């Protein structure tokens, strides 16, 4: 079995890490579709339940297929351990519920996915956990938001949907000075393009639904980091049960095998599409870290391998013009999901960020003319033609 400690390349880890063949010595990873596991005797059952003996107990918190996926993703991120969850949002919830308690304070960037904002701003607040949202790229704002009760910094970089790039090392320094931990949502980049743990982050979260699967097939999430953190997340998952199913884990395992190939190809197409959009008269502005016009372009090129596969652009004419572009597409999928081999387009103000207040959207810079595209593997010429129809007016 390939292990990150053996200094294998990322491409090798993506294919080999986590393999633990059964008695049948199968080549492909096995899928264990079972709710429970049988013990040899009562003593072994007691030892397994108490943790005195390693081994599978019950699929709510232990399954060989899920373990394989966790091992592989931990290796790719360079983390000590990984806990897989039922979705990206359940990964964030599991981290928060395991590391925070009533009276604790969170500092989070404004540039977060809408549901993440809802979780920190509206859900956790019911349990006495308060969150201060700060501009994603304003380092002084992170520092000014610190309280004696601050326990967690949470950022997403690049941000959704404006692709703001947060200086992970700088925010990590602020968090550690405050005695807090830094969690980074690495969904947009994946470990192929960005490894937050190497930049000073304490923990990484993923919506495995996105690039880790890569084909829009299943839901999944993950928390990657040191065992001192993942052990606490495991305790929450074991009790509360936001569990990744073995089937979904197997699909994500297979998706990881082609992760780098997909990310490199989709990122290259996204850069070409971003350059093309910048030249269109109907486009007011393009947001893409790979473009020199991006405010954090220099930081992105130091922190990331490339600009990534997601871009946003503001259409002249507000919501009416933006919706015309969406409705004029014939090939691009109109859906809020991202990370698929099929290119997707969405209007963030009325979809991914539609549940947050107009004031919060304005603070995050999400206007009515903004569109987000997650570039897939189709012909770049076909993508341009599909968008040109609506941009022509």
TrEMBL record:
List of residues that carry N6-(pyridoxal phosphate)lysine: 210
EC number assigned by the record: 2.5.1.-
Gene Ontology BP, a term: transsulfuration
Catalytically driven reaction(s): O-succinyl-L-homoserine + hydrogen sulfide = L-homocysteine + succinate
GO molecular function, one term: carbon-sulfur lyase activity
Subunit (UniProt): Homotetramer.
NCBIfam families, alphabetized: O_suc_HS_sulf, PRK08133.1
Function noted in UniProt: Catalyzes the formation of L-homocysteine from O-succinyl-L-homoserine (OSHS) and hydrogen sulfide.
Family: Belongs to the trans-sulfuration enzymes family. MetZ subfamily.
Name of this chain's protein: O-succinylhomoserine sulfhydrylase
Lineage: Bacteria, Pseudomonadati, Pseudomonadota, Betaproteobacteria, Rhodocyclales
